[in-house]
Amino acid sequence: MIQYENLTIRQAEVDDAKQLAAWWNDGAVMAHAGFPNGLGTTEDEVVKGLGNGRMVIEESDRLIGECNYRNVSDGVAEIGIKICETDCQNRGVGRKVLSMLIGWLFRNGCSKIVLDTNLTNTRAQHVYEALGFRKVRTNIDSWKDQLGRLQSSVDYELVEKDFVSYISEH
Predict the structure, then answer these.
(1) Which of 8, 43, 6 is closest to 23 using CA atoms?
(2) d(CA 60, CA 75)
(3) pTM of the model
(4) Which domain holds residue 111?
(5) How many Cβ atoms are within 10 Å of 84's Cβ, its own excluded?
(6) Strand 76-83 with 112-118, pairing
């Protein structure tokens, strides 16, 4: 569990599956990930996928989003984040949560963090770059969303010396 002020990142649990399924089935939440119609998943399928770095984000004990990480090679972690509740977006919550997660990963042995985002998600790119992420490459028309539309993505990486945290460590 990672905590800062009224924000908590914790391991996703069976009790979170209903909310995760609702978000994953919501095309508005999932469009940037290439699923404008949602995933069409069930609570049971979500439960089977728990663990392995799947975490939820709480603000004042309310579930507001999710994040995850996975080790892709020695000392390198890939991360993802979604602030799923629209009333929690555009308030700086994402950069605080990312600061919490990234700081924790660096303290626990990571030397580099990587992620990718949709080229059209300029809001996320702004946040990643403010945190110190460096754009590694742009992948033009590299994948198709579930409607068959070509999509482009941007790959980012961050090393600890470039990390700009938006939280104060206690």
Answers:
(1) 43
(2) 32
(3) 0.93
(4) 2-162
(5) 22
(6) parallel
